[in-house]
Write a structure and sequence with these properties.
Order of helices and strands: HHHHHHHHHHHHHHHHH
Main location: membrane
Membrane topology: Multi-pass membrane protein
Protein name: Sodium/proton antiporter (CPA1 family)
Largest sheet: none
Structural class: mainly alpha
Number of strands: 0
GO molecular function: antiporter activity
GO cellular component, one term: plasma membrane
Radius of gyration: 21 Å
Number of helices: 17
Length: 406
């Protein structure tokens, strides 16, 4: 264990020394982390000895996703979102269901041995997007604000929405009860997950921000402990929602939105969130390294043409066609729709879902996990390498007055 910890944090230290330089290139951090994990894992130097079934891997991935959701949501520009809610609304209400339906249909063609529930599980695991892999797009001021905020909000909410659906499908797969009763129970579970997540996320955010204001107004906050509240609030929100039977991911995103909206000063909000963002980056680094070491190593031996075909389709047609259909009638040019359709990278949420499904020991779970793993691998390469170049090219094409970032 100590050898694993030493390797992980030594790599984190070294990466921190060169992070600024790498961020000015087209090489995504997730790509570096994953390659390192593969190099030092069982399929490489065998310095890291990890088990993909280990509860620690799932816990790390879940808390990483929770912290990233909370900080991304808290940093969202709500003024822009209020004026441009059409894009994320259409992507979530129309694009997301169509993506799952199309993904399920594609799985039926490529994986006929899987049952309908397993096919739907695969589509659901790969429906959420990860803004971190397309960070060069989300933070690039040259890209129009509606598109940036649309992608950010979509990636924040779609994984939270998919969580209860995933759990419902797992319940149906584990206990196949015929008739309408099982589906009524599943629907009740879905509503419960979302409802509890909304209530817990909003309630804890309001209470947390009020407590921070109360403490700050009386000078009780010290410089050192000022770094902790955002991280503690995010983890508390996630764990409390999960413990009460709700979706911790929805709770974290909603809580982040509420906390960001209630913050009095933008500067103070940035100061409070800075350490949480750094912690999220560190947790993300560790998760990607473990993914490279424990998951990719196993996926290498399970690559088939069906798995590769589904991975390619998931990143292209299964994502881009629903996005195009969802945005029909929206005030957006064709190149903007294609841009939004392409930047649907798969990342942390899909990894978390894959680990959950693998632990469930369903028929075909290894096929499901291998397909998710290869989709994420291709996404790391494709979206990581194209984020900055395509963002700047798109900005030049629409004639923005802002200069693209290098």
């Amino acid at each position: 264990m100590y050898q694993d910890v030493a390797i992980l944090f030594a790599f984190a230290f070294v990466y921190a020394l060169i992070a600024g330089r790498l961020e000015r290139t087209s090489v995504a951090g997730a790509l570096v982390f994953t390659v390192f994990g593969l190099a030092v894992g069982p399929e490489g130097l065998n310095w890291l000895r990890l088990d993909v079934h280990a509860q620690s891997l799932r816990t790390l991935a879940e808390f990483t996703l929770a912290l990233v959701l909370f900080t991304d949501a808290a940093n969202a520009d709500l003024r822009v979102l209020r004026l441009n809610y059409t894009i994320p609304e259409r992507l979530l209400l129309i694009g997301l269901p169509l993506t799952i339906l199309l993904g399920t249909a594609a799985a039926a063609v490529l994986f006929p041995a899987l049952g309908i529930i397993e096919r739907a599980l695969l589509a659901t695991m790969l429906a959420p997007t990860d803004a971190a892999l397309g960070k060069a797009v989300v933070v690039n001021p040259a890209v129009p604000a509606p598109i940036r905020e649309g992608l950010n909000v979509e990636s924040g909410l779609n994984d939270g929405i998919c969580v209860p659906l995933l759990l419902v499908l797992l319940a149906l797969a584990g206990e196949p009860v015929g008739g309408a009763g099982s589906w009524n129970l599943a629907l009740h579970h879905f509503v419960e997950e979302i409802g509890i997540g909304l209530v817990v996320g909003t309630g804890l955010a309001v209470a947390g921000v009020w407590a921070l204001r109360f403490s700050a107004d009386r000078g009780w906050l010290s410089t050192t402990w000022r770094q902790l509240p955002a991280i503690a609030l995010a983890f508390t929100t996630f764990a409390a929602a999960q413990a009460l039977g709700g979706s911790g991911f929805i709770a974290c995103f909603v809580g982040g939105i509420a906390a960001g909206a209630l913050a009095r000063h933008q500067e103070r909000k940035h100061e409070l969130l800075l350490s949480a963002e750094g912690s999220g980056d560190l947790f993300g680094l560790l998760t990607w390294v473990l993914f490279g070491a424990a998951v990719i190593g196993q996926a290498l031996g399970r690559l088939t043409w069906e798995v590769l075909a589904y991975a390619v389709l998931s990143l292209t047609a299964i994502r881009m066609i629903p996005v195009w259909l969802a945005l029909v009638g929206a005030d957006l040019r064709a190149d903007g729709k294609l841009f939004l359709g392409w930047f649907g990278p798969r990342g942390l949420a899909s990894i978390v879902f894959a680990v959950i499904v693998l632990d469930a020991n369903l028929p075909g779970s290894e096929t499901l996990t291998a397909t998710v793993a290869w989709t994420v691998i291709l996404s790391i390469l494709a979206h990581g390498l194209t984020a900055s170049p395509l963002a700047n090219a798109f900005a030049r094409r629409i004639g923005t007055t802002q200069a693209p970032v290098p």
